[in-house]
Amino acid sequence: MRVIKKYPNRRLYDTEKSSYITLSQVHDIIRSNEDFKVVDAETGEDITRSILIQIIIDQENSENPIFTTDMLTKFIRFYDDAAQSLFGEFLEKNMSMFTEQQKKFQQQVVEGLMDSPVTRMMQDVTERNLTMWQDMQQRFFDIATMGIRPAASGDEAEKPAAEPKSKKKRK
Known about the structure:
By secondary structure, the protein is an alpha+beta fold. The chain has helices spanning about 25-30, 50-60, 70-80, 85-110, 115-145, 155-160; strands at about 1-5, 10-15, 20, 35-40.
């Protein structure tokens, strides 16, 4: 495992290459699927997570961020909430599913199957899975944030929730 030391002057030192590196170079290490960890040079404490968060912040400050303000706000609401561990597990499982589907798609590209019926079927399955994942994510956020909303007072607390309005039929 590649070890990177972080010094008090905020510099990162790659022990494998015996040279200082930047966060951008750590990002390259991650993209190359190389195992690594970052340790505090003085204490030996594993600070890999904080470096990963810094890389995400750098990426999110670019022109094409992944996370919307609404999504980040919801993430923050889950901290110190009873649903925090459930939320973490939910994200981890969905990232695994997304990664598996991405690998399958890349494999198909490499094998030159882009015009085959199997590929079209896999694309359809992937699109349906993505739609299902998005629906599941929205339901999860809706359920999880219900516990965050302030409780209604008095009579409102005892009334059942209003039935959703049905959509008018088009002629």
